[in-house]
Amino acid sequence: MIEIPEQELRLGDLEADETYRVAVLQSPTTSETNTTDADPQPEQPSQAPPVEEGEQRTVEIEDIGDQGDGITRVERGFVVIVPDTKQSERVTIEITDVRENVAFAEVVDRVSYYE
């Protein structure tokens, strides 16, 4: 059993009988001290998502997620989820929702590979 602090939970709509994936990442607590001789890793400043709501981009759908939505990645591997697309399809998208680690977009235009 793993206890998760309430402030770390993001609650949203969950569907019964669906599979959801979570990531459990190790994070040092404030009481831990660095006892090794190795240089500590410098903390990287939190970076803002590389996309904004309303922004349009032409992308290639790289993969299809578990729910059937297209997945593409932009700068720094930032994931954008695009419904109603197929793998390897080139589309112009408009970003509709941006979160800390993922964005959602809608198809504005389907682009020919020759453009």
UniProtKB/TrEMBL annotation:
Looking up SUPFAM superfamilies in the UniProt record yields: Nucleic acid-binding proteins
Q: Where's the TRAM domain? A: 50-109
Region of interest called Disordered, as start-end residue ranges on this chain: 23-68
Superkingdom of the source species: Archaea
Q: Where is the composition biased (Polar residues)?
A: 26-38
InterPro entries per record? NA-bd_OB-fold, TRAM_dom
The signal peptide, as residue positions, is none
Protein name in the entry: TRAM domain-containing protein
